[in-house]
Design a protein that fits this description.
Layout lengths: L20 E3 L10 H12 L1 H4 L2 H6 L2 H11 L11 H12 L4 E8 H11 L4 E5 L8 H11 L5 E4 L5 H4 L4 E5 L3 H10 L1 E6 L6 H8 L12 H5 L6 H28 L1 H5 L16 H22 L3 H17 L7 H20 L6 H28 L15 H22 L3 H6 L6 H20 L7 H7 L1 H19 L4
Parallel strand pairs: 1-2, 1-4, 2-3, 4-5, 5-6
Helix pairs in contact: 1-4, 12-14, 12-15, 12-16, 14-15, 15-16, 16-17, 17-18, 17-20, 18-20, 20-22
Amino acid sequence: MTPVPDPRQVDDQPGVDSSPLVVDLDGTLIHTDILHESALRVLRDRPLDALRIPFWLAQGKAVLKRRLAECTSFDPASLPYHRELLDWLQQQRSRGRRLVLCTASDRSVAIAIADHLGIFDEVMASDGASNLSGAHKAVALEQRFGAAGFDYAGNAQADLLVWERARRAIVVNADARLAAQAADCCEVEQVFPPTALDFAAWLRVLRVHQWLKNVLLFVPVLAAHQLVNADTWLALLLAFCSFSLCASSVYIANELLDLESDRQHPRKSARPFAAGLVPAWMGVLLAPLLLVASIVLAGYVGGTFLPALLIYFGLTCAYSLWLKRLPLVDCLTLAVLYMLRIVAGAAAVSMSLSFWLLAFSIFLFLSLAFVKRYAELQTLLIQGKHQAPGRGYATSDASLLQMQGMASGYAAVLVLALYLNSQAVLLLYRSPEFVWGAVLAVLFWINWMWMQAHRGHMHDDPLVFAVKDSASLAAGVVVAVFMAFGTLGWQW
């Protein structure tokens, strides 16, 4: 940071505003809150230290922020900056105006951000003893620059205390009511309106499109040809809703714990929490509410569905916190999580699962898990990166994952083919020879999915991609037709 001249000296250069422009950090310069993100990183990386957060808070917010800053590290380049505001600040600086970053976040964090951006002449921040927020910030700024001796960019109700002592206000990410209140305190120079949280944004928060994977709950009933029992379908619909709410809860928790990695990903960086569209504290509140609603619905399903749901939830939490960073283990875990949906579907209707269905499922889902990871590595490889952020893979591992994934897919096809030679198939199919057509369709689909991943077309979860892909849908129709012919029989 460049040395700062005395702010009370009058700038003799014509056209240069001598009043410094003071900028808040959390919710203003960045679309997030450093305190919330630091607490989430401690929970993820140092869970034992997370238990100490209430004791740190009891000593004051400044102490809490300092301790969290000491426990964690972050990449200032990955933060979701308010680009429109940042461009405006750079214009102001180009005109010779002094810029000051003034934040309630810890000084070490503020300095790292200021050094990264390179546009601030001075940093004022919490120092581990005093929390530079609200009235404390207002007093500090008045002492530093004098009454009405500075302009201030802020976003929150607490900033009204600062605007009362400022010359002009820049209102950022605030609603019309706060902007009107700021106008009562001083002249409003600029307003940067917030991005509206519409219905589509909340659908993305819940990842409703990922609920398609929970259709796997219906697989045991379809495989056993138990399609006519109304009670069965009601139980499965409740189970689908329960599982979907649980999955959304886990997705939110996963995003909150993986913000920095997501921000380095070309597509995941647009997710609501990573982009700062939805504040992290909302996710912290929403995730447990969704989980409670899921458990309540699971109680109405009955059977052993609730234990299956809780196993899924526990394994997913383990995946989010730890297992996803272990190479190969992460793909095996994903395969098991896919298969648990089938297990939960059978549990919802008190149905036993066959060896053949379980064996086919684990190999197929392992192949799809490898597809998912391979596609991510391919994208990173094209960008010239050598390591997958937040994962245990190097981009050079892509070819190995491709071989392992295709081998798993072929193993699934082999299990399906061997199933046609078992005694179980004679109980369900009048003409099992027709099911060979389904075997060929599944073989085509596995190769097709890997070809799409190899060409860089796999931009979503493989099952979600398949629902949107015309060739995959056609393969599914072919499988259904041949299964129907095998079930109903055919007179030659």
